[in-house]
Design brief:
Number of domains: 2
Shape: extended
Distance between the termini: 51 Å
Order of helices and strands: HHHHHHHH
Amino acid sequence: MNQPTVASAINAPTASTEAGSLFAKSEIEAGEALQMFARAIGTAPTYETWIAERTNWVNGYIEVKPNAKGEAADKAFSRFKDRLTDAFGISAPKSTNAAAEKKAAEREKKTAEIMAKHSDQTPTMLRAQLEAAYATLAKNPESKAANSVVKELRQVLKVKQSADNKAQGEELATARKHVKELVSKCTDISLLDQLVDLLEGNAQ
């Protein structure tokens, strides 16, 4: 009776191996899906084209996942749209419909009012308020007022965190550029060695 060798045991397919294969295939198929959709709508789609192709996409999604109707399918397309923008720079066009433009203006106005209401609050303060709001909602899950507070705080926190992240990224880019310029002009090896030690220690 032949005994399995160590090499054959290591190379034997496992559930993890299959999981890796499936994930790789899903990435390849997702890339192909993005390319297909990009070709269907073009680089500068009209609003009407976008809506029509979005509807087709959702129909195709539901064919494979029949239980993913309504909000689930909408969220799936939202994730797909974000990847489409990252991959090809294609984003959803704004509607030229007067009613839609009016609604968009109303949403922007409402968002501005909400942000002004919380202008003095930091993300840390907002997170504390959100935690308290969740606790209130947990005690009164049917409360429309509590749910409204949670929704508002989440919206404000998301905007502020995004702004903070952008600002921090810009500061980092400026600082790195400055350091690079200084390093390129430095002729003192000991100083450069100190900088390397400092940066390596910070990276650990």
